[in-house]
Amino acid sequence: MLQHLTLSGRTRWIALALVLLLALAWMAVMAWRAPRAEALLVQSGPLLRTLQFSARVATLSRVEIGSTVTGRVAQVQVREGAQVRRGEVLVRLETEELRAAEAQAVAAERQADATLQAARATLARAEQLVRQNFYSVAQLDEAKRALDVALAQQGAARAAVTAAHARLEQTRIEAPADARVLARMVEPGQIVQPGKALLNLALAGPTQLVAQVDERFLDQLQVGQTATVVADAFAGERFAARVQSIAPLVDAQRGAVEVKLGLLQEAPAFLREDMTLSVEVETARREQALALPLAVLRQPTGDTARVLVAVDGVVQERTLRLGLHTLAAAEVLDGLRIGDAVLIGSAFKIGQRVTVLVVPWQPTLRAAPRDEASGSAGSALTNAMGR
Questions:
Q1: What gap in Å lies between CA 135 and CA 141, rounded to an integer?
Q2: pTM of this prediction?
C-alpha cells in the first residue's frame, strides 16, 4: 500500500514538471515568433535649432573716385587692397597745360588791376576838374562808368584765377576719407574725363555681413540673435556675429529678405569685400527637452503627431503634442515619458506583440550637419535652412 502511494506522488510531480516545461516551451515559441522591432528610448537632453545660410562681406559705404577735369594720368599712387588715409593723393594728372592757363589768368588779373587803378585815377581827376568847372557832369559820369567796367573786369579776372587754381588742384585726386582700395581702373598715360570711375573705395567703418534669407524662415529670425561665421577658405577660423537688422520688405523676385549681421569682434584679416561666408544663426534652444527624430513621427500635423510605442512587448499608439522643431528632431511636450520605447517604422499593428531591440540615439544639437565630405564649410547650407 505504501509503495503504491509513493508511485502516485512521483507521477503527479512528473506530470507537473511536464506541464511547466510545456508552458516554458510555448512561451519560448511565442517569443521566438514575435517579430523584432527596433525602438528608440525617449530621453532628455539639450536641443538647439539653427538657421544656416550664405552671406557676403560688405562695408557700410562704397564710393567711386573719378576726375572732375579732363586730362592725362601722370601717376597712380595706390594699388588694389591698399589702405589709404583721408586727403592722401591717389592719382595725379599732368599739369603743364593747366599751369599755363593759371599763369595766363594771373596775367589777366594783373592787367585788370592796372586798368582799375587807372580808372580810379581818371575819376579822381574828373571830380577835381568838375569842381573847377573845367569838366562837365557828363564827362564825370563817363569816368564813373569806366571805373565800374574796370571793377567788373577785375572781378572776372580774379574769378578766372580762382577757377584756374581749382582746376590745377583737381589734378590731385585725393581720398575723401580713410578707406581701402577695392578696384583700380586707371593706369598712367590714360586720358580721363569727368564722370569716369578711376578707383573703387570701401570707406572705413564697421564690417557687415549681408545675406538674402528665404522668406519661409522669417519667423525664426530676430534682431540680436547670435551667429557663428566661417569662410570656406579658412574653415578653421570661425568668428562670432549678431543679427543687426532685418529688412521690412521682401524681394518679390527672389522671395528673400535681406538680413544684416555685425561682427562681435575685430574683423579677421582674411576678410575681403564681397567674400562669401557661411552663417549659422541660433534661433532657439532648449537646455533639457524630450525629443524624437522626425522619422518616427506618424501623421504629423502642425504641433501634433502620432507614434507607436512598445509597452510590455505590445504595440500601442500615442498622440503627441510637439514643441520646438529642427531639421532632424522635434521636442515632445506631452504624450511620452523618459524611457518609453518608440518604434522605428510603421509596419506594426496596434496590439501586436514585438520583441524590442533598442537602437542608441541622442537628440542632435544642431539643425543639420555641415557637408564635411565635400570639404566645403558652406556647400550644403542653402538646402539646410530652417526647421
A1: 11
A2: 0.54
